[in-house]
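Bug report (template v2)

What were you trying to do?
Predict the complex of my protein with zinc ion.

What happened?
Run completed; filing so the output is reviewed.

Input:
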Amino acid sequence: MVREEPYCLVCIECGAKYSPSEIIYKCRRCGNLLSVEYESEVMTPEVSERWIKRNLSVWRYMELLPISDRNKIVSLGEGGTSLNKCPRLGGEFGLRSIYVKNEGENPTGSFKDRGMTVGVTKALELGIKRVACASTGNTSASLAAYAARAGLECVVLIPSGKVAFGKLIQAIIYGARVIQVKGNFDDALKIIEKLCSTYSIYLLNSLNPFRLEGQKTIAFEIWDQLGRRVPDKIIVPVGNAGNISAIWKGFKELYSIGLISKLPEMIGIQAEGAAPIAEALKKGTEKVRFVEKPETVATAIRIGSPVNWKKAVKAIRESGGLAETVSDVEILEAQRLLAQREGIFVEPASAASIAGLIKLTRRGLIERDEEVVCIATGHGLKDPDVVLKQFPRPVEVEASIESVAEMILTHNLKADRVVSAEM
Ligand SMILES: Cc1ncc(COP(=O)(O)O)c(C=O)c1O
Ligand SMILES: [Zn+2]
């Protein structure tokens, strides 16, 4: 007898149910997105007793992940990223409890790995041979790595000339078939969606609900790392809007299970030039008007038609949160500040959450004692060009003690020398 899985796919709008063994991304009845929902037998607080016996990672929470055969998990050691308290950054803005969850520590340097370990494992379960995605860079890097690990063929579509260098070379070295599309991410996603529904290629963009299941573990980890508590606010950079929806789903599941009694406010941050969700919510409407030509230095969130907009709007509304926009200048300033005050180097899209934190604090929307977690979604080394364009090249001197000493002293470090000499 075939065992019934303790989860199924449910339409977020009309509630239609689908078997998890079906290859389906949108509801056949109404065209809306799907979500993985679990039976009550797994939604119990007892699951957490098993979690404590495992390391902090995506798979610590395997009871709430939609995978049938645990022996076939495709993993590179994803999750278990650090949650850094940031007193120097927070202190600058009068905030006492600021944390940064550093998703750049994942195997390919972004939170996408949490989704791909689940999505690619699912692909194997479904007997898939070829996987694909459209990407602003990180999804392609991650999918390419996990596909290689699983022995699957991988195709990625990227917007021509708009993907950060580090991400492009990741997809290439992992052996993906990389195709540049003369258009933006939204164009590329439409094309790959169509191709995946026509040919037998498995789509691993964030409209695939299994991927978001992996990403919801960000919520579980934050709760674990704070000593089984929930912060007041979570700030998330928003592009295609899957991650904010996934993190909210994670917290809601902890709540339904009875492991937490309060939920955090979800705050979504978009770049000014690519902010359909934030613009709508700021105007007080849920009518999201897509941006035809999105533009921002934060290429990872350069998205005008976020496919998960409905899920994200719901997450922000239900949680009592809000959405805000930040300019490219604010993003780059936040990137520098986080690196120089806390030693955490993130890519521009990730710095959008810090820029949002600063902006909302200045507006009085974040208070001194509130506990806030900013999600730093991807590593700074992915996009070195952005840094090189802003900072001068290091000075060059002759290879002599005198030249180096002279350079140091002209940079006003005399005081340091005196102090150390006295010690
Ligand atoms: C570094 C980084 N931050 C944020 C995002 C936005 O995530 P989402 O598309 O789930 O909103 C992405 C998506 O590509 C990303 O790569
Ligand atoms: Zn439906």
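What did the reviewer find?
Residues 11, 13-14, 16, 27, 29-30, 32 surround zinc ion (ligand 2) (CB under 6 Å). The two ends are 76 Å apart (CA to CA).
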